[in-house]
From TrEMBL, chain A:
InterPro entries: CT_A_B, Cyclophilin-like_dom_sf, PxpC. It comes from the Bacteria. Pfam families: CT_A_B. This is Biotin-dependent carboxylase uncharacterized domain-containing protein. NCBIfam families: urea_amlyse_rel. Residues 30-308 form the Carboxyltransferase domain.
From TrEMBL, chain B:
SUPFAM superfamilies: Cyclophilin-like, PH0987 N-terminal domain-like. Residues 6-207 form the Carboxyltransferase domain. This is Sensor histidine kinase inhibitor, KipI family. The lineage of its organism: Bacteria, Pseudomonadati, Pseudomonadota, Gammaproteobacteria, Pseudomonadales. Coiled coil: none annotated. GO terms for molecular function: protein kinase inhibitor activity. Keywords: ATP-binding, Hydrolase, Nucleotide-binding, Protein kinase inhibitor. PANTHER family: 5-OXOPROLINASE SUBUNIT B (PTHR34698).
């Protein structure tokens, strides 16, 4: 076999939880196709900013670590999100900055030290097949990823990119998200919130919720007080990102990027995008709080947050 | 049926549920289709996704270009003088289906529940045009109905981990085809060789809301000739 035409990063070791993701797949949810895309879009955006990429350029979403990559040419990469004990030839690489690698070096991710997901960006974004307007990986749907069939990163895969970056940057310290303090997640109150009992609403917003081990890119279950809702099962309807649905067992499920497009459980509302990004860095067993907000206030906060985004 | 006035419900930071109807009804469909078309027209590029279901539309708009007040105005505009879509616009699809216990393990259960023979279950399931109400659950998964009451059956109490692509099932008074291998809890009665979702085809999903579907019984030889995969289900519930 001839050498790869375009050497980049060769995958030596990977897991099903390490995937190529971009900003997601839009305009096709009416066909039953889920949104996909990076769970922590804030970290993804910073990784791309560090290299001057488009905010939604394809990055590696590295959940929980256990990834080894062989660098096959000199390059500059950027790392953001959780601290998964990344090393370059054994030397620690901290997130929230770009860094240089030389051909022959080995980039490894161990396990979570802080947060749950790291994002690795390459100049111009990693190259991948676009399927329905996106290269976001979804194995269940068989869409996206390196070859378009949704597979996660696998041993032997070759990651390539097309642009060149020389300058190194860091994310301004004040803008690095804080993963140390317990998450306070803003929840935009939805129309069915009145169907929950008063006690349940009090409990929902005044209790510590524990992340269950049943957590993936479709949804994360919370354990805590049992919430009661008058309306049991409803006619299925479209589900927004971050929807907090409450099935009959009274334990909420927060629906994320790979959620089903429609469903029929009553909902408290939906997390804001910033809250979804923060949740993406929580590990099973961690506790969090939910904080009710109205849509208008959430929109104002989102606009303010984006207004503080530094120019490229 | 007069034009529906949707109630608007906050669903998320940039999403609203437009509730057009309270009940599942085949007569909703011309209005649901018309409303979808008009909303896509008036929102244009500011519409990120519009997800129709039986009685509602989830409208996900671009927060960076529209205020909540503008969104409400556009919805008002879309529903002004709304006319129902012409129901003859939907396509009629014939889905060749091999009804057999080997690929439809609930055929016997459905027969027992309805006190019909398996042949009668097949005759009744295939003797009716179904309307596509909504797509969801998986790419190209079409919720269709209504199955006649005698054939209605609740979902399996334990869903199967792996259902073959093309599997035809019943849940309550709905019927559907699993477009790809997936977990699922519907009662299976057969399998179609027809490909339902393909990023390479126009519109991606063969079945669209408002279309009508008829299942056409075929035998094993025909199923294989049409490219069907007759491998049995791996796990039983």
């Amino acid at each position: 076999m001839s050498a790869p035409i375009n050497p980049g990063l060769r995958v030596l070791r990977s897991t099903p939880f390490i995937q190529l993701q971009d900003a997601g797949r839009y305009g096709v949810r009416h066909l039953g196709v889920t949104q996909s895309g990076a769970l922590d879009w804030v970290a993804q955006r910073w990784a791309n900013w560090l290299l001057g990429n488009a905010p939604g350029a394809a990055v590696l979403e590295i959940t929980l670590g256990n990834l080894d990559l062989q660098c096959e040419r000199d390059a500059v990469f950027a790392l953001s999100g959780g601290d998964l004990g990344a090393t370059l030839d054994g030397e620690p690489i901290s997130p929230w900055r770009s860094f240089s690698v030389r051909a022959g070096q080995r980039l490894c991710f161990a396990q979570p030290r802080l947060g749950a997901r790291a994002y690795l960006a390459a100049p111009g974004g990693f190259s991948a097949t676009q399927v329905l307007g996106s290269c976001a990986s979804n194995l269940r749907e068989g869409l996206g990823g390196l070859d378009g069939t949704g597979k996660p990163l696998q041993q032997g895969d070759q990651l390539t990119w097309t642009a060149t970056v020389c300058a190194l940057r860091e994310v301004p310290g004040a803008q690095v998200p804080n993963y140390r303090t317990p998450a306070q997640l803003d929840l935009v109150m939805g129309a069915q919130i009145g169907d929950f009992s008063g006690q349940s609403l009090f409990d929902a917003f005044n209790s510590d919720w524990t992340l269950d081990t049943r957590a993936d890119r479709m949804g994360i279950r919370l354990l805590g007080p049992v919430l009661q809702c008058q309306s049991g099962s409803m006619v299925s309807e479209g589900i927004p990102l971050g929807a907090v649905q409450v099935p009959p067992d009274g334990q909420p499920i927060i629906l994320l990027n790979d959620r089903q497009t429609i469903g029929g459980y009553p909902r408290l509302g939906a997390l804001t995008p910033l809250a979804v990004a923060r949740l993406a860095q929580c590990l099973p067993g961690e506790t969090l709080r939910l904080r009710p907000v109205v849509q208008e206030a959430a929109q104002r906060h989102q606009h303010e947050w984006l207004a503080h985004w530094p120019a490229t | 049926m007069s034009a529906p006035r949707p109630t608007l419900e906050v669903a998320g930071i940039d999403s609203l549920i437009l509730r057009l109807f309270e009940q599942i009804d085949e007569r909703n469909m011309p209005w649901m289709l018309a409303a979808s078309t008009r909303l896509r027209e008036v929102f244009g590029a500011a519409l990120i996704d519009l997800v129709p279901s039986y009685t509602t539309l989830l409208l996900h708009y671009d927060l960076s270009c529209l205020s909540a007040a503008q969104v409400r105005q556009l919805i008002e505009q879309a529903f002004t003088d709304l006319q129902p879509a012409d129901s003859s616009n939907g396509r009629l699809h014939q889905l060749p289906t091999w009804y057999d216990r080997r690929v439809g393990p609930e055929l016997a259960l459905l027969a027992r529940r309805s006190q019909l023979s398996e042949a009668d279950v097949i005759r009744r399931h295939s003797g009716h045009d179904y309307q596509v109400f909504a797509l969801g659950f998986a790419p190209g998964f079409a919720f269709m109905g209504l199955v006649e009451a005698a054939l209605a059956a609740p979902r399996l109490s334990t869903p199967r981990k792996r259902i073959a692509a093309g599997s035809v099932g019943i849940a309550e008074r709905q019927t559907a085809v699993y477009p790809a291998v997936s977990p699922g809890g519907w009662n299976l009665l057969g399998r179609t060789p027809t490909r339902l979702f393909d990023p390479a085809i126009d519109g991606y999903s063969l079945l669209q809301p408002g279309d009508r579907v008829r299942f056409e019984p075929i035998d094993h030889a025909e199923f294989i000739r049409l490219g069907g995969d007759d491998s049995p289900l791996q796990d039983t519930p």
